[in-house]
Amino acid sequence: MSLAFILGQKNLTYDPTGLIGLYEQHQAVRDAYERAAEWTGLDVGLLLRTVEDDTQRSRTTSVGLAAAMLGITDLLGERGVHPAMVGGISLGAMVAGALSGAVSRQDVIGLLGHTDGDQRPDRAELPEGCVAAVLPLGETYESFYGTRPGIWFGGDFGMHTSGAFRMLLLSGYRDAIDQLATGYPPEYFVFSDETVAVHSPLRYRARDVLARIAADITFTDPVVPMCSSLEPRVLHSADQVRSEFSRNVVEPIRAEYLTGQMRRLGARLGVILGPTLPRDGFEFPFPVVYVDSPDDIDHVVAAVREHDVLLPT
């Protein structure tokens, strides 16, 4: 009978309208953005809105969405809504580390502002990218797409609410991904604006940079249980959370690892923070409510009551 906070991935093309509304209407959200701006030196206006400049886009989006998730957490806290467990996917995994109490918010925001500013392929002559790919029901990644040079399995977001397919993340060299896509219907692939091969071995340099910085950051054992999306386990120690941060850069993510552990811990309702996962896009093993606009706050409070969720004090 517990509440889970679920934090999703970096979304380079999200609509900022709802977050701007939250910022304008709620001091808790403004405070989160203003602290993030102070800690990184980035302008609040850039953090609130998607930008077109590729040299800044990745970093401002990461920091801005992290600030949004932290601000929404504080806003829900003012309404007495606190999570019994947390967990995230990609960007969300790092922010979940802060919500679990394992690392400070300032350190997470600073880490994102530092490491996400250097988003470029290791080899400029080989552009990288990633794509969301349909996996029809009954197929496996190996049997359907097989092993192809220059492409890696980057993640599994789970079953679509239609029940007809799963949505995968494929990551690697852009020319290899483009060649793969020519053999399938165009609706099977949704290309990302990412210019790096996220959650693939090609990110090993970024992993090493993040690991070096994280080594100087203070981590403690989580106070709130933190569920992993890299393997089916709950993180209980400071060392496990620190390792999760660097592994998160190069290893594939699986939504079912995250939500499966939450269900095992007794999650009765999930709250998805920010515009980081498609609304009503994927199946969950428990009801979920999305929060990325002012009207959603009352929806969360109503859902907590409807599902008879026991909130931690």
Automatic annotation (TrEMBL):
This is Malonyl-CoA:ACP transacylase (MAT) domain-containing protein. InterPro entries: Ac_transferase_dom_sf (IPR001227), Acyl_transferase_dom (IPR014043), Acyl_Trfase/lysoPLipase (IPR016035). Residues 20-308 form the Malonyl-CoA:ACP transacylase (MAT) domain. It comes from Dactylosporangium siamense. It comes from the Bacteria. GO terms for molecular function: transferase activity.
